[in-house]
Design brief:
The protein has 11 helices and 12 strands. The protein folds into 2 domains: 9-132 and 170-234, Spore Coat Polysaccharide Biosynthesis Protein SpsA, Chain A (Alpha-Beta Complex); 239-290. By secondary structure, it is an alpha/beta fold. 41% of the residues lie in helices and 20% in strands. The chain is globular.
Length: 300
C-alpha cells in the first residue's frame, strides 16, 4: 500500500524552456493564500534556458526532477506523481496563472464529489476568452476540419462545434468526456487503481486517454466553472512547431487505434488521414513562417 504524505495536494508541473512562464506560475501558487497543504514538483525535460539554475535558487521549496533528455509530457507527469504523495495530484502547465484560493476551491469541490476521479476547472486565455478545456471525444470528422485550412473555409462545422462543446455556456458543473491536461485534478485512488498516464503518448492525447480509462474503471470526469485559471497555451510547443505537429499526430494515431479501431484496414485508413492532416499543418506552418506568423498549436 502506497504511503500517503500529509499534504492535500501534489502539484505536478512538466516544463521545457519556459522559465519566465514557470516563474509566474509558481509565484501565483505560493502567493495564493490557499489553506490546503500542497507540495510542488517540477519535472524539467532538459531545458537549456534559466530553469535548471534559477528554480532551486528562487523556489527552494519546489522539488526539482531534472531529466537529462526530453522524456515527454506523460512520462514527466508520472515522474512527478511518483515523487509526490498528496490526496490529489494537480497536473498543471507552466504557462498558467492560478488565482488566489483556487487550490482551496478545487480540493473542496473534489472532497464533495468522491465519485469523480478527474476534475477540471474553467480555463481562460490571457485576454479573458473562454478556452474549451472540456470536450467530447474526438471524431474523424472533427479532426478533418479542426485547425486545418478547411476550418476557416467552412466555419461553424457541426462536428467541430460538437467536439468543442460550443453549444454549452461552460458555466455549470457537468460530467464530460475528457478534460485538458493543462489543469487536471486527479484523485490518488484513481492513480492507485489504473496507474499513471500512458507514456506511449509523448505529447498530445494523453489526457483524452486517461479520462477514457478513468471512465472505463467506473469513475466520473467532472468539469467545474470555479475556479478559473489563465492558460496561455503552447508556450513550449511554439519553440518546436514541426516536432510538436508530428508528436501530436503520432499520439492521435495511438489514441484512435488503442480505443476505437483495432481492425487492420481501418487502422491503415486512420493512418492515412492523420498523415494527410499532419502534412497540411506542416505546410501551413511553413507558409505562416514565410508570412511572419506562428502556426496554430496543433494540441489546442
Amino acid at each position: 500500500m502506497r504511503q500517503i504524505a500529509p499534504s492535500d495536494l501534489t502539484v505536478c508541473i512538466v516544463s521545457w524552456n519556459v522559465w519566465e512562464d514557470l516563474q509566474a506560475c509558481l509565484e501565483s501558487l505560493y502567493s495564493g493564500g490557499n489553506r490546503v497543504s500542497f507540495d510542488v514538483i517540477v519535472v524539467d525535460n532538459a531545458s537549456t534556458d534559466a530553469t535548471p539554475g534559477r528554480l532551486p535558487e528562487d523556489f527552494p521549496q519546489v522539488k526539482l526532477v531534472a531529466n537529462p533528455e526530453n522524456r515527454g509530457f506523460a512520462s514527466g507527469v508520472n515522474q512527478a506523481i511518483a515523487a509526490g504523495g498528496g490526496r490529489y495530484y494537480f497536473l498543471l502547465n507552466p504557462d498558467t496563472i492560478v488565482p488566489p484560493g483556487a487550490l482551496d476551491e478545487l480540493i473542496s469541490f473534489a472532497d464533495a464529489h468522491p465519485q469523480a476521479g478527474i476534475i477540471g476547472p474553467k480555463l481562460r486565455y490571457p485576454d479573458g476568452r473562454l478556452q474549451y478545456s472540456c470536450r467530447r471525444f474526438p471524431t474523424v470528422a472533427a479532426a478533418i476540419f479542426r485547425n486545418t485550412f478547411l476550418e476557416p473555409l467552412i466555419p461553424g462545422v457541426r462536428s467541430v462545434r460538437h467536439y468543442l462543446m460550443t453549444d454549452w455556456e461552460h458555466d455549470e458543473v457537468r460530467e464530460v468526456d475528457w478534460l485538458s491536461g493543462a489543469a487536471m485534478l486527479i484523485r490518488a485512488e484513481l492513480v492507485e487503481e489504473i496507474g499513471g498516464l500512458d507514456e506511449g503518448f509523448f505529447w498530445g492525447s494523453e489526457d483524452v486517454d486517461y479520462c477514457l480509462r478513468a471512465q472505463q474503471a467506473g469513475w466520473q470526469v467532472l468539469y467545474t466553472p470555479q475556479p478559473e485559471i489563465v492558460h496561455a497555451v503552447g508556450r513550449s510547443s511554439q519553440q518546436a512547431e514541426i516536432k510538436t505537429i508530428l508528436h501530436t499526430h503520432r499520439s492521435m494515431y495511438r489514441l484512435y487505434t488503442k480505443h476505437w479501431s483495432r481492425w487492420f484496414g481501418s487502422r491503415w485508413l486512420i493512418w492515412l488521414g492523420i498523415a494527410l492532416r499532419a502534412g497540411m499543418l506542416v505546410a501551413d506552418c511553413y507558409l505562416r513562417r514565410l508570412g511572419g506568423k506562428r502556426a496554430v498549436d496543433s494540441k489546442e
